[in-house]
Design a protein that fits this description.
This protein is mainly α. About 40% of the residues lie in helices and about 0% in strands. It has one domain.
C-alpha cells in the first residue's frame, strides 16, 4: 500500500456505491474500482496536491483527472455530496464560503469593477 492512508470506511462506501456511475448494472463501460477512485479524490482534497502528484497507488493521474471531470460535468459530485451531507466524518470535505476566506487581493482592485467601453463602441 506504500504508506497511502485511506479514508473511506465500509459503511460510508456502502452508502455511496449504489449512487455512482459505472456499476455492472449500468449501460456502457463498467468503472474500474470506484472506491479506489474516490479514495484518490479524497487524498487530493486532503493534501491539496496537484493531480500530477497523485501517488501511483491510485493509478494514472491523468485517467483520474479525466474521470473526475466527467463526473463533475454529469453532476455525480453534487448528488454524492447532497446524499452524504449528514455524514459527520465528511464535514471536512463540505467546504463553502463561510469556511474558506479569500486572500485580500482576490476581491479585485480598489474601487470595485469599472466597465470601460471599447474604442470601437465609443466611436460608433
Amino acid at each position: 500500500m506504500s504508506g497511502v492512508r485511506l479514508i473511506l470506511k465500509d459503511h460510508q462506501w456502502e452508502r455511496m456505491e449504489p449512487h455512482l456511475p459505472g456499476k455492472r448494472s449500468d449501460p456502457g463501460r463498467t468503472g474500474t474500482d470506484n472506491r479506489l477512485f474516490l479514495e484518490a479524490v479524497l487524498w487530493l482534497a486532503r493534501t491539496g496536491s496537484p493531480w500530477r502528484d497523485l501517488p501511483d497507488f491510485f493509478g494514472n493521474w491523468n485517467s483520474a483527472f479525466v474521470r473526475f471531470s466527467r463526473w463533475s460535468k454529469d453532476g455525480v459530485w453534487d448528488r454524492l455530496f447532497a446524499m452524504m451531507a449528514d455524514e459527520p466524518d465528511f464535514e471536512y470535505v463540505m467546504i463553502d464560503s463561510t469556511i474558506v476566506r479569500a486572500h485580500q487581493h482576490a476581491a479585485g482592485k480598489k474601487g470595485g469593477l469599472k466597465l470601460v467601453r471599447s474604442v470601437g463602441r465609443a466611436a460608433g
